[in-house]
Amino acid sequence: MHESCELPLKNATSEEVREILTRYKTVAVVGLSDKPDRDSHRVAAYLQQAGYRIIPVNPNLSEVLGERAYPSLREVPVPVDIVDIFRKPDAVPAIVADAIAIGAKVIWMQDGIAHNAAADQARAAGLKVVMSKCMLREHRRLSL
Fold first, then answer.
1. What is the CATH number of the domain that holds 107?
2. CA dihedral of residues 132, 86, 104, 101 (deg, nearest 10)
């Protein structure tokens, strides 16, 4: 655990998670790795197979899972529904600011990632927020 590790003070309910996963289908995966053994790669591959459009966001890669990778959220040329974050908590505020700037609908922080101040900022801008939950696990749990 990081020293900056937080627990979510407020989080999406199961009903909200279900709505997010059924309503929104374009997912920018920030920190997506091209290494198949990494969680970000496994989750993105699963979501892709489940019918979601994956947009890799990683400045060190040009392509992942057959999709062009972008250096930052602000450089993604299509509308993004969900920003799925696979980065350390200290990187979250800047990612949330970018997500707000591009008009994303949802901030999703993966397992072990929570940033309450950034989550409050996202909610204030009208975004839905999920913290410290795995999209793959939630999708399976809800049998979507």
1. 3.40.50.720
2. 120
| pLDDT, tens digit only, all 144 positions of the chain | 344 568 899 999 999 999 999 999 999 999 999 999 999 999 999 999 999 999 999 999 999 999 999 999 999 999 999 999 999 999 999 999 999 999 999 999 999 999 999 999 999 999 999 999 999 999 999 988
Can you give the residue range of the structural domain that contains 79?
Answer: 14-141
Q: Is residue 2 part of a domain?
A: no
Threshold 0.90, pTM exceeds:
yes
- Dist CA 48 CA 46 (whole Å): 5
